[in-house]
Amino acid sequence: MDIEYFVDCIIKWWGDLSYTVWMYFALLLPVSAFVYQITRGNKRKTVLLIFSWFFFFSLSGILLITNIITAVFVWILGKKLEQINSDKSIKRKARKKKKKKTLVLGIITLLLVLVVFKYLDFIGLNIVRITQTIGVLFDWKMLNIIVPVGISYYTLEAIAYLSDVYWEKTEAEKSLLNMFLFMAFFPKLIEGPITRYNEAGSLFECRDIACYNLTTGYQRILWGLFKKLVIADQIAPAVNALYEGEYMDGGVALCSALFFTIQEYMDFSGAIDIAIGSARIFNVKLSENFRQPFYAKNASDFWRRWHITLGTFFRDYIFYPISLSKNAAKISDKARKIFRNSFARYTTPAIALFFVWLSNGLWHGPRWTYVFYGMYYFVLIMIENIMEPMFLRLLEKLRLTEASVPVRVFRYIKLLFIVMIGEMFFRAETLGKGFEMFKSIFTDLRFDIMINNLENINIDRYGYFAIVTGLIVVITVETLKEFGFPLRAKIEALPVPVRFGFWYICIFAVIILGAYGTGYDAADLIYAQF
Predict the structure, then answer these.
(1) What is the pTM of this model?
(2) How far apart are CA 242 and CA 249, in angstroms?
C-alpha cells in the first residue's frame, strides 16, 4: 500500500510538472545535471534530449510527436535550402526563385500546423458569426484540440532558422540530433526565450558543468521563484476576483489593471529567470528577455525591453522584409505624390508595423482581445513616432532635456498608464468587458469601493505583506540595474559566511513568503498558454 501511495504521488507530481514546482528545480534539474556530468562527449547531447523529451511528454503526452516531426521537417528543409544555395549549375535568378519557393513552403507548413492546433476553433466560430450576419446557415462543432506545449515558441524558432539559412546568415545544421535538441531543450520550452539557431552554439558544446555556472544558475532560479511565488502567485487570486466580479467602477478597473500588470510581469520575467538559470547550469547561455521595461521612455522603448526575443523576431522577420520590399517602396512613392513628404515618410513604417502588431496580437492566442492589444500598440507607437519631434521641440522651449527629472517622471507615469490600459484589455475575457472597464475610468472613477473591499479580494494581510515586500525588493534591484550598479559583483565580493547567509535568507524568504501548499491553487504560468 505504501509503495502504491508513493507511485501515485510521483505520477501526480510529474503530471503537475512545471518550472515552479519542487519536482523541477529539486529533482529534475539535479538528476539531469548529474547524468549529464557523468556522461562524456557528444553523448551529453543525447542525455539533454532525453530529459527534454521527457519534460515535453510529461506536459503534453503523445503530442511530443509534433515537436519531433517539426524538427525533422525543418532539418530536411534547411539542408535543401543550403543545397540550392551551393548549386552553381543553376542561374542566380532561378536559384533565388527556387530558394524562395522552398522557404515559403516551409513557413506556410509551419504556420498551418500552428493554426490547426491553436486557431482552428477561433476561425470556425468567426466564420459562423460572419455567415449569420448575411443569413447563411453554417455550423461549427468545437474541436477543442489540445495544444502542444511551447508550439508558439519553437515554431518561431523554426521559421527564424529557415529564414537565416535562406539569407545565408547561418549554415544548415548537419546533425539531426542537434536539431532535435534545439527544438526541444527543456529550459526554454514552455515560455522561451525565443532562440536563434546561431545563438545556440553553447547548447552543442557539451562542456563540463562548472561550479560557477551551477551556483549562478540556481541563484537565477531562486530570483525567478521569488518573483513568481512571492508576488505573482500571491496577487493572482485578487486579479481573478476583480475581473470576475459583478461590479466594476473606475477605481476597480484601474486596480484590476494594475494588479494584473504586476502579476504578468512577475510571472513572465520570473519564468524567464528560471529558464535562463536552468540553461546556465548546463553552460548554455539563453538570451535575456527583459531589461527593466518600466523604465522605458515610451511604448516603443517598452517593447525593446519587454519580451525582447519576440520583439526582435518580429523586427527581423516581418518589419525589415516588409519595409524593404518592392511593394512597400511602390506604396511609399504613391504616398509622396498624394501627401506631403513629411507625412509620406511614415507610410512604409506604418505598413510594416501594422503587420508586426497584428502578428504580435495573434501570436498571443485566438482571442479578439489579443488582436486589439496588438492594434492598441500599433496606434500608440505610430502616434509616438509622429509626435516625438514636436515633444522634443517643446522640451527645448521649456529648457528641459530628456534626462530632466520632471520629464522622466512624466514619461514613467504616462508609460505605466499606457501599459495598464493595454493589460486591462489583454486580461479581459471579451472586448466588451475591456471597453466597459475602460469607459468606467472616465465615467465612474472613485476608489471607495475598492478601498473598502481590500480584505475581500482573496488576499489576507499576510499576502499583502508578501506582495509589498516582494515589490520593494524587485523595484530596488531593477532600479540599481537600470543605473548600472554592479549588484552581483558586490554580493560576490562579500565574505563567504556573509554571502552564504545572504543566499539562505533569500531561500527562506521564498519558503516563508511564497504562495504554495494547502489553501493555495497553483497559478499556471501565464505565457505558457501562448
Answers:
(1) 0.92
(2) 11
